[in-house]
Amino acid sequence: MRTSWRNDTLPFKSISKNGAPHLNVPVSWPSIDNQSFFSFGGGQSFFDKVMDPPDVACWQFTADGNGGGAWDLFKPVDDSAFYRLTRPDGASGATVDNTGFIFGGHESARSSPQTKYLSTNVPIPGMVSFNITSGLWSNDTMPSYIEELDAPQGILASVLAFGSDGLLILAGLTKDGYNPPPLNNITIYDPSNKTWHAQTATGQVPSGRGLACTVGVKGDNGTYEVFMYGGLNIPGINGNTSLTQYKDDVALDQVYVLSLPAFAWFKADYAAQHPRIRHTCHVVGNRQMLSIGGHDPTNGYNDSVATPDPFAQGLGIFDLSSMKCSDRYDADAKPYVTPEVIKACYNANGKLTQNVG
What we know:
Structural class: mainly beta
């Protein structure tokens, strides 16, 4: 990422997975030195003709500094703790300080050899944490009203500017994965003391959704912004949703921003053209968000994998300060500044309009 590029001309390099499995939507956590990342969770690809999910394992990819790298099996420090875990399919993940977290998801026929005979998905309780420094794993309990929820609907994001080591926020979670609620009720987890708090968000509150992606960035005025892109609002099993309504209300091409400490939502003003689900988002350079992969569920979820990607090579760029889409990564972009619409809100109402935690 040292030089600028366009998404239609960026060259790709194929890297052997060295035995690492091909899984749908695993969770990834960066190493402390940002020279590698760890991958855990996910489910066997729907394109595989034979149902044969791989053994539960954690893999590490280490970059070589020249556009390449290698995959290796990451052996757990405590075998007994790790092998009591189940590989979650459809879970959400985030990183705070030196710990990776993975929340929710479910056991399924595609998640492990032990669960390959399941006929329905089984939600996984608790929240798994992985200490990136020590290599130790644990499965922590959660409040009962959260443990019964299923993470594919809703968001999990890290907030690195508050708390002694950072915070996790959860919102829009559902029990059955359908009809997700609006994202106004925010649950906060402080890993430093393992406490849970509740907060109500205001502003342009997004409708419920799942399978979106989020990134976070520290503002220039003492704030912290969580950007959320895309997602899918899955109606109830018995719902009767027309294709027009599906396009308008279910397949979502929207960027929303949750700004702390105000806990206020803002919606980016741009023409919706690229609904995305099951994509990943990453802060790149100084102020841009990179969306990778995913698919467009506009014409129905089951047909979405056959829809061509609207972004060249599956790469979408979004400027976090101007809140505008682009097809170019700018290595020389100016540092991130909080968008003007958010600054105006703080100027009018004061910074500490609500309390964090």
